[in-house]
Amino acid sequence: MPLDTPSLAQEARRQIEICNACRYCEGFCSVFPAMTRQKAFSDGDLTHLANLCHNCRGCYYSCQYTPPHEFDLNLPAALAELRQDSWERLVGPRWLSQAFHSSGGLIAAALVAALTLLIAVLSLREPGEGAGFYAFLPHEAMVALFAPAFLLPLVAVVLGLRRYWRESGAGPLRLRGVLAAFTQAARLRDLSGGQGQGCNFEKEERYSNARRWFHQAVMYGFLLCFASTGTATLLHYLLGMEAPYPPLSLPKLLGIPGGVLLVIGTIGLGWLKTRAERKMGAARVWGGEMGFIVLLGFVAATGLALYAATGTGWVAPLLAVHLAAVLSFFLLLPYTKMVHGFFRLTALIAEQTLQARKQG
């Protein structure tokens, strides 16, 4: 699939070719070793390199060719723009992603408000007969709302990843490469600046691991919350154990720490984003990225508030708001910064596959 914006590719190609000739930053992250495999870069190569980049910005502060040098290199920004373009192009439809990133906070707030009203009306028209949350909204209504809202956006992302894989030319999967990529992603190695000292995202020429730690809090918090929901689903359908669950049950032992980590991580990432220089990222999507961070943090915060409100009159309104926030998160997933996690992991797997193919 050709790039829709050739000017982005041309600028990224120009900068990458200069970097490939210099190679001073070869040990910084996964981008630079991958860059050395060839001297000419196809559109697929550029898309792959852009998705390997974690925008740590260490290469910018180490580069001798940044402004005011005539080469005018700003590789983090060039790759960020190309990366954003790849998500919009490969997942599609592009206009939905562009709409969210131009008015992310407003769209997320409006969608949460509308869905809160819908869920509140449903709970009044079809009051549940079960215990806990099901006393306010029947289980069948929750499934009818959330199953398509989860599965359809996920299908869109999977199709986008399939297009990316073909464009990168990675070829057949290798199990060893998949395991190595998951290990790398679990450690967020590329946010350590390649040497473990951290990156320069918010402190310019000073190193910091803060972005890595906050990213890990978000990543593991999200996985714990997802595991909590998955465990509750298995308990419900396989063992006939319906919610609400006691405080020491597996869903709550996973969900509460997960929610806390998500709140801490999103607050931290939002704070760092206000301190970082916009010129080294995709500046046009700054608002949408911040809107996504706020939405994800809001999902976690309302979930924790719902736990705390158990047995009080606040459960019904908080349940409507929390379910609306979760539903909004999944509906918007392919068009927000959330999609970067899927693409980065796929890029790491593709890179391991390409390396193995080169080594024979």
UniProtKB/TrEMBL annotation:
Transmembrane annotation, as ranges: 99-121, 141-161, 217-239, 254-272, 284-308, 314-335
Key words, A-Z: Membrane, Transmembrane, Transmembrane helix
InterPro entries membership: Citrate_utilization_prot_B (IPR012830), NarG-like_sf (IPR036197)
NCBIfam families in the cross-refs: CitB
Name this polypeptide is given: Citrate utilization protein B
The organism of origin for this protein: Gemmobacter nanjingensis
Gene: citB
